[in-house]
Structure formats: structure tokens, C-alpha cells
Amino acid sequence: MAGYRKPKNDGPSSEDKALDLFAEMMIEKIESIQGDWRKPWFTEGALQWPRNLSGREYNGMNAFMLLLHCEKEGYTIPRFCTFDCVQRLNKPGKDGQELPRVSVLRGEKSFPVMLTTFTCIHKETKEKIKYDDYKKLSDKEKEEYNVYPKMQVFRVFNVAQTNLKEARPEMWEKLEQENGHPKIGNGEQFSFAPVDMMIKDNLWICPIKPMHQDQAYYSISKNEIVVPEKEQFKDGEAFYGTLFHEMTHSTGAESVLDRFKPTAFGSPEYAKEELVAELGSALVSQRYGMTKHIKEDSCAYLKGWLDELKESPQFIKTTLLDVKRAASLITQKVDKVALDLKQDVSEQEQQENKVSATEKIFYASVAYLQFADDTRQLDELKDKGDYKGLLTLAKEYYDGNGMDEQQTYASPLRNRGDDLLIEDKDFAVVYNGSVGGTYEVMLKYTEQEVRDHIRRYGIGRASDDVKAVARDMAAEQFAAVSRQKIPAFELPGGEVLYIGYNRETDSFDVGPATNAGIIAQHSFPYDHDATLDDNLQRVNEQLNEMEEYHAEEVQEEDYGGGMHR
């Protein structure tokens, strides 16, 4: 009988190969900084946060390596896609017409991204369930399952490695526009309002205290951040970069990410926590368009970081997982404050520009008299200048019916040559001398009356001016709901998407939140014949039906870290 043969070892796993590559890239980057520690972590203002082709952001660990990859290869659009994603772009168009094929260019090499999926197995029945179903269980029910994390490696290509520019020029142009935004600010003392508000209103996980002194640190014992005042830094970017460094440290507290362990100053664990803080602050700064240089105090750790990386590529894995969790916590908080600020500004602008409903008047056409009609009496009154008599006569053409929203306008003058002859509190008469002369009799309504009409009858056949009022109403209702909390949906895969009403397109924009607002990944038309709650429910249902949000949730395991400075 043949003896047992041990399966052949095919060499390093895909995860090991990815970690080796990440370690090599980090070594190269740190060595370049060691040669000139004034160099920034990333090229100044060059790239935005990496996303996939559908607009979903990569997490902190993958984002950091993809930024380094873009910088090294010269990619100016940090958007990536898998080979399968490229193939899906080759589906026939809506009209069934075959479009030019999108493909990866010959000879191009993919880049690894690492994701952790979870397998949930019942301890007794061995039944498997999805991780998003496991999350919905009670604590007692969760005890009946074993949860096994598994790191998986996926290969992605930058859009510049495909023929997308030639095959889908409109999509390429849109990607260029989305990734060509300028930095949020520069100059000597630019201000980043979301972080300024976090400091002022104590919205971070611990107090932040700018003080006129020369040290920046996070105190574990007091659970507070102390930094010099902004005016003491060479520019605003240096202030925020230093603050992000200390904010990253503060996420390691026991009550937050529990990363700190008792350790001595200068130990490997201490050095690792400094690297977590440096990479975390570099990543957060890059997200908000700021340039982050290495903190001068951290330069002493450069050699230690290199030694650790060269000795064990696993060092970069545990470090980047800590960076991912810390950076995610910071950006989520900042983005939430930024969204609240934007909402407050929008409400203030609406309030400042809003005309009282009792003052703003709309004009509904109730009679249109042309040359085919007998307008001789009106002509005589007009020619004599008896506009009061003309108005009295014109009122007789009104048949007593209610508002026709299709013929209701914000101004009585809509065509070239229109002339408002006379009006009182209820009626107006407009004359146009072209083509034999026409008279239009118009009944006046307040904006409040227009709004009441919209609530009763909708806007199915309304004029553009009436539809604009409906958009104002939707914007006001959404703003009222958003004052306490910006609406958001948690999808089956665990992703959280925010929702905003876009008055210009009369639709809901749905996507992740940034300091500039919501990055719209999806747009849903607003139904003015339904309530706001019904509209939100419909959007939620449609999102939950989308395949892309039914993948198992991607999360990383908890890893320990070192202490802060």
C-alpha cells in the first residue's frame, strides 16, 4: 500500500506575498524619509482617498498602500477595479447596443488588497450563516456560534491600467473631474472648520486643549490631548497634522480601541505606537487634502521601524490594521461634524434667502384672450388708459375654478413683449402687443396657498415654478429631520451610507460622508406625491436589494499596540 505523501508546499501564501510587498514599499518610503525627513509621507496635494470603480472607499490599511502604489507608478486617479469588475463593464447598453470592450492592458500587473471575511458556524448543528445575519442575533444566540476570521487577498488594477479612457470616454472624464479637486486650503493659517468645531465643542473622544506652550502630547492618565496653539505652527497644515498624530494616539485608550500596553519609553512597542500615530495622521491628512510631514520627534524611530520591517513583514500587517481602525474612527467623527456643519450653513442660507410665504406671490392664468376672441372692449379701455376699468372687465372672464398648477408661475411676465398693465390684491392683467395683441387674466396666490395645493394634489402636471416650490418643501422637511441626525442606512454588508436631498436634481444622493459632503454613489428621484418617510423607506428598500451590498462584511481583527509618547 502506498504510504501517505505530504501535500506539496507551493511556497508563500498570497497573504504572505502581499505582506512582503507592503513591507518592501514601506521600507522604500521610510528610507526616502530617513534621507530627508522634511519630505511628506505623500506627494503634496496629489491624490484623493482611493476608491473602487463604483465609488466605495478602501479601508485604511489598503488605502495607505494604494496611495503609495499610485505615487510610485504615477497614477493620478486613485480608482481601482478587479478583473471581474472590468468584465462587467462589457454588458450591452440599455438599448442593447454593443459598446467598445473594456479590458486590462497587456502586460499590466495587479496589486493586492487584503480583506477579512468571517465564517459563522453553529457549535452543535454546524450550520453556516452569513456574518450580517450573525450580527442581528442576541448576545445569548451569538454564544451558540463559532466565528472564524479569514484574511483574503484580492487583486486590483488602477483604471490607468485599462483602456477605459478610450472605451468609455464619458466615464473617464467623470473620474478625472472627481479626482481633480483642489486641496481644502493652504497658506499660512487656513482653518479646517470640522476639526475647529470638534475642539471648540469638545466633540472628540477626549478633550483637545490648544495651549501656548511648545509640546504636543496625549496624556493617558488625564485622557486629554494638549497641543500648541495654531499660531505657533509654521502653517495650518502643520497644526492639523500634529493634532491628527495625537488624536491617533488617543484612539488607543482602553475604553476606545484598547491598543496600549504597559511599556517603556524607546521600547519596540513604544516605537510601533509612534508609527501607528504617524501613518494614521498621514492618512487622515491626505483624506482632507493636507500635506503631512513626519513629526520631528518621530524621526528617532525611523531606524527601528526599518529594522522591524526587514525582520518581519507581519509587523506591517499588525501596524496597518491598527492604523486602519484609528484612522476610520477619526474620519468618521470629522465627516459627521463636517456634514452637520454643511447642513447648518445650508439652513442658514435658506433662511437668509427665503421670502416670507405671505409676501411671495404666484400668478395663475385663468383666461387667455387672443385676436380670435372679441377683445375690442379691452382694447378701448387700454387705449384710453382706463386700467381700472380694464381690470374690472377682465375679472369677468374668471370662471371661479381653483388653481391650475400647470398654468401657475412665479412671475406674470413669461414671454418677450409681456407688459403688466395693472393688478390688485387678487388679479393681474398682462398684455402682449405681438401677433395682434393678447390679454392674459391672472389670479394671484400666496406661496402658502401654492404649498397647500401641492400637499393636496401633488405636482404631476405642475409648472416648473410650482415644482421649484415642491423642491423647497422637500429640502425644508429634510433639513428639519437632519437637525438632530443626518439620515443614514446600515446595509446588509455592514456598510453605512448617508443620505442627502439634492434640490438641484430633486433627488436623494446616497453615499459615504466626507468633509465636502456626501459622495453620491447612488441617486434616487424624490416622489412629491409621497411623504418624506415613505421616500426614505423606498430608498432603503432599493439599496437593500442591490447585490453589491450583500457581500459578507469586511472587518479586521483587533490587534494590540504600543503606548503613546
UniProtKB/TrEMBL annotation:
Protein name: DUF1738 domain-containing protein
Domain N-terminal: 21-157
Polyvalent protein metallopeptidase domain location: 212-316
InterPro entries, alphabetized: ArdC_N (IPR013610), MPTase-PolyVal (IPR041459)
Transmembrane segments: none
